[in-house]
Specification:
By secondary structure, the protein is of the alpha+beta class. It has one domain (about 1-215): Alpha-Beta Plaits (2-Layer Sandwich). It is about 30% helix and about 35% strand. Strands 4-1-3-2-9-6-8-7-5 form a 9-stranded antiparallel β-sheet. A hairpin with a 5-residue loop joins strand 2 and strand 3 (about 45-55). The longest helix is centred in the first third of the chain and has 17 residues, at about 10-30. It is globular and about 50 Å long. It starts with a strand and ends in a 5-residue tail after the last strand.
């Protein structure tokens, strides 16, 4: 599950306290959740990417998770009213190159996009991801496809923040050990190797630095 949102500037500290101290630990404790992370926009705007890794997408429609979504804590209800321009998507992973490190990657780029030709999905899953992963400082590249059926489910939390699925079907997460750059970065490298840029539409690129990561077993 990936969630992009701006946070009211005067609420950012309170939001970080809520997310660090209550929300991520609560979510990661749910059966099937593996890890939760939050990244902040590299230019320090109050724009954040929050995401959770789960054992599979069925966890995100499980009884335990739906119970949490439909009975938010008072602090959660408060925090969600300060989300602006929210987008929340459920994804299934279709490709990965690289490995998860002991510590979460310090930087991440999210590339959301559609494909002009669905037949080019195989190119992305096989060649584009590999080419992006061969770039300097890249630790792991993951490619996902949205699961609209689960993503569109209505919950009490959604009725507060108002965020639904984004318009793009695909998400690439590029994890790096150094600040990502646009010029000569992994996206440019992969596009040059595969012609991938010509295959994309409706793309959104955001670059972030890590604020917090909490993995199952870290104090659980």
């Amino acid at each position: 599950m990936a969630f992009w949102a701006d946070i009211d500037a005067d609420y950012v500290l309170r939001y970080q306290q809520w997310h660090n101290c209550e929300h991520i630990p609560e979510r990661v404790s749910i059966p099937g959740f593996v890890e939760g992370r939050r990244y902040r926009a590299l230019d320090d705007r109050p724009h954040f990417l929050m995401f959770y890794d789960t054992q599979d997408t069925s966890v995100l429609s499980s009884e335990a998770y739906m119970a949490a979504l439909n009975k938010p804590t008072p602090w959660t209800r408060e925090a969600l009213t300060h989300f602006r321009n929210p987008t929340r998507d459920i994804f299934s992973r279709i490709a990965v190159v690289g490995r998860q490190r002991k510590f979460a990657s310090s930087y991440i780029t999210s590339l959301r996009f559609d494909l002009l030709d669905e037949g080019s999905e195989a190119t992305y899953a096989e060649r584009w991801v590999q080419a992006a992963a061969e770039s300097e400082n890249v630790e792991r590249v993951r490619l996902y496809k949205a699961d609209a059926l689960i993503g569109n489910m209505g919950t009490s939390e959604r009725s507060v923040h108002g965020g639904g699925p984004g318009k793009q079907a695909y998400l690439a997460l590029i994890e790096e050990s150094a600040p990502p750059t646009e010029a000569q970065g992994p996206i440019s490298r992969a596009d040059a190797a595969t012609g991938g840029g010509a295959q994309r539409s409706s793309e959104e690129i955001n670059r972030y630095w890590l604020e917090i990561a909490h993995r199952k077993g870290d104090g659980e």
